[in-house]
Design a protein that fits this description.
This protein is an alpha/beta fold. The chain contains 20 helices and 16 strands.
């Protein structure tokens, strides 16, 4: 009977790691954990304290600092894999997981599935001949050396690559290896793992080569499995269900995806939202279930492609799947009003609606009622709106039939503004600078939960400077964010200056902007 040793690479949520390890080992299987060294030491200690004496749990002897696209991810996998191979001689299979993975079949089903076919499950496509890599560099991943991280050290990464290309500094793939590529989520038999570990022990040049390739977790195991295992014993697929958006990002699954996930021809799925507590609980219980019959439809990816291609609105999965073209559109203008005093911003959007043809809504990512058009159920909750903000705004452009849209955002949401600013659409920002007297700051402390209703005046007054500093910090972050089209109007500023700023923001004549402001003479009043 198959018994699985799960290779768990994770970097956050220590309680989730503990729960996952206990859940997977409750059925007689095993877990080997590598917890990223970049995470706080206290998190790892929490996991050690909870699981150190568990007979079904092992820990990687070395914790490494991991970075996306780096060799460190493969090195961390090898650390956990070696630990599992030594600690669990009963394990027949080794299954790669992350902290975002959850079972979508029972352990009973998984064992029967693995026992039915003596093979390895790993995507394994020819690196040079296949079209597995859709965008970005391809052969440059291998023939040049990569010492820097493209995401965190972009200038160094590309400068190093360009210098190697200029001087013709290339290298050969290790002899007798055909480089293969595929997903990093695999399930390998024990004899395959042992053969790979023996191979790299005998041939250290293989590790030296892959350690300076780019994104080696998509090539290292894929290449070595194909090297040590006969082709007829390899199933070129993963047993972990995942879908990628047109942005190249994995789709996240939520509570109402339970039935969909169980119908897929896979054993696990990722990414499961950390907020999907009901889904996590149901899938956790499912792993330990016995006698459960699964009806396999395997329609997940086809359904995703259909809905994104058709742009359906108001159907069950449409709110969660973005359109084929993820950009808002280069011809469109996103106009964001940023104000700490929400009532002030709402006065301005009301005047814009009354005076212009520009669609203007309120704090759509913070409040349920925000003067939105009928969205067919897509924008049913504030949480959904924030999670799928670009998709929502794109739909709003279409619903309003306009290439311009005004909406309001709190100054604390600089990252949200930056997300829109990174789009091909033009993003304009109007910052409303308000004065904050002591009464407002006291009320704000209560609204954000900093003080309770029965807090003494002494406690509140002691916190006033702290809260004022925080409000100023929010304003400074916005001004220093480097937005190309940032205007501001201020309480107490010259009326003509405010009108010019509003005109630039809205793209209207100064006279029209002045008329809008004249309609709201008490714009800044509390």
């Amino acid at each position: 009977m198959a018994r699985i040793a799960f290779i768990l690479l994770t970097h956050k949520d220590p309680q989730g790691v503990i729960d996952q390890a206990r859940r997977l080992t409750a059925t007689g299987d095993f877990v080997s954990i590598h917890f990223d060294r970049r995470a706080p030491a206290a998190m790892f200690q929490q996991i050690r304290d909870a699981l150190a004496d568990h007979p079904g749990v092992a820990f990687a002897p070395r914790r490494l600092k991991c970075g996306w696209g780096e060799w460190s991810l493969v090195a961390a996998t090898l650390e956990a894999l070696r630990a599992a191979e030594r600690a669990f001689p009963q394990a027949t299979h080794f299954y790669m997981l992350s902290g975002d993975c959850m079972p979508i079949k029972s352990a009973e089903f998984a064992r029967n599935f693995l026992d039915a076919d003596d093979c390895d499950y790993i995507e394994s496509f020819d690196f040079f001949e296949s079209d597995w890599i859709k965008t970005g560099i391809k052969q440059e991943r291998l023939i040049h050396r990569h010492w820097f991280n493209e995401r965190t050290q972009k200038w160094l990464f590309y400068t190093s690559l360009q210098l190697q290309q200029r001087f013709g500094l290339t290298r050969e793939v290790p002899k007798d290896l055909q480089v293969m590529i595929g997903s990093q989520w695999w399930c390998l038999r024990r004899q395959t793992v042992e053969a790979i570990l023996e191979l790299i022990a005998q041939r250290p040049e293989i590790v030296r080569f892959f350690s300076t390739t780019w994104i080696p977790d998509e090539t290292f195991f894929q290449t070595l499995v194909a090297h040590v295992v006969p082709r007829r014993q390899i199933r070129t697929r993963t047993l972990t269900f995942l879908i990628f958006t047109d942005y190249g990002m994995p789709v996240t699954f939520y509570n109402d995806h339970y039935d969909l996930l169980l119908r897929q021809d896979y054993l696990f799925a990722r990414k499961i939202s950390p907020e999907a507590l009901e889904l996590r609980a149901r899938l956790g219980a499912l792993w330990q279930a016995e006698g459960h019959a699964f009806t396999i439809a395997a329609e997940g990816r086809r359904l995703f492609s259909f809905l994104t291609g058709r742009g359906r609105i108001g159907r069950r999965f449409a709110p969660r799947f973005w359109e084929t073209d993820g950009s808002l559109g280069a011809e469109r203008v996103v106009q964001i009003v940023v104000a700490k005093k929400w009532h002030v911003a709402k006065r301005l959007t009301a005047a814009i609606r009354a005076r212009t043809e520009i669609p203007a809504v309120d704090y759509l990512f913070n409040e349920q009622e925000a003067h939105l058009p009928d969205m067919g159920g897509v924008a049913s909750t504030v949480d959904k709106r924030a999670r799928h903000r670009r998709a929502l705004v794109k739909l709003m452009f279409e619903q309003f039939g306009s290439d311009r849209l005004v909406f309001c955002v709190d100054p604390s949401a600089v990252s949200l503004i930056a997300d829109f600013d990174a789009d091909r659409a033009e993003t304009r920002v109007l910052f409303i600078e308000s004065r904050f007297d002591d009464d407002y700051v006291r009320g704000h402390m209560g609204r954000v939960g900093l003080v309770s209703a029965d807090a003494t005046a002494q406690v509140v007054d002691r916190l006033l400077p702290v809260m004022r500093s925080d409000l100023q910090h929010e304003a400074d972050r916005l001004k220093e964010a480097g937005f190309a089209h940032l205007e501001s109007i201020a309480d107490g500023a010259d009326a003509s200056r405010n009108a010019q700023a509003l005109a630039a923001f809205l793209g209207v004549p100064v006279e029209e902007a002045r008329a809008i402001l004249d309609d709201i003479p008490h714009l800044f009043a509390d």
